[in-house]
Amino acid sequence: MMILHYLQYSRAFRILWALEELQRTDYQIRFYKRQPNLAAPDELKLIHPLGKSPILQDDQQVLAESAVILEILQQRYDHEQQFKPRPEDQEHAYQYLYWMHYAEGSLMPLLVFQLVMGNMPAHMPLLIRPIAKKVCNGVKAGFLQPRLQDHVAYIEAYLAEHDYFAGDFSFADIQMSFPLHAMSKRIPLDIPNIRAFLARIQQREAFQRAQEIDGHYQ
Length: 218
Prior knowledge:
Blueprint: E1 2-7, H1 12-21, E2 27-32, E3 55-58, E4 61-64, H2 66-77, H3 90-119, H4 129-161, H5 171-186, H6 192-201, H7 205-217
Parallel strand pairs: 1-2
Antiparallel strand pairs: 1-3, 3-4
Helix pairs in contact: 1-2, 1-7, 3-4, 3-5, 4-6, 5-6
């Protein structure tokens, strides 16, 4: 029996969606609410020392990190190789590997930094809040926004020529969905190709089943 440790408003949706794509019925969900400061509850550290989500227990093995969990699920249960390009398809296999790592290695750090810079002034003492806001706005304008614009242009150009990130739909699309969804919600951008991609994947039956399950727990 698999157990998905599912933190509220987290990347755990990726794993839930993947399990639904694989049509697994032998899993349970244990749901955890975030604390008022948005941190994960301490109970998750009883499952994995870092207390992060997603965590998937598959028999006696505890798996962490979205990309790792997706890779192991694909290797163990995708018997017809539906969700990863075959090795002989070298170009798509490379794109799969690239986007699986790019999502959290390159794109998400910038989005998290943007979120931190946006929230930081509100947590400063009242007297220095205007200064903190000016500093944070300077960091966003001088460092974050130019880099994010480069990434947005890069992804937009790629999706202008590809419906999915690695040939046909794959787990790379699940991995990329989280930062792209966050970007589309938080940052006012002209991103028609990214929005079209998000609309495309949200039409999948497995995505919609996962969304219903997520809505039940949330």
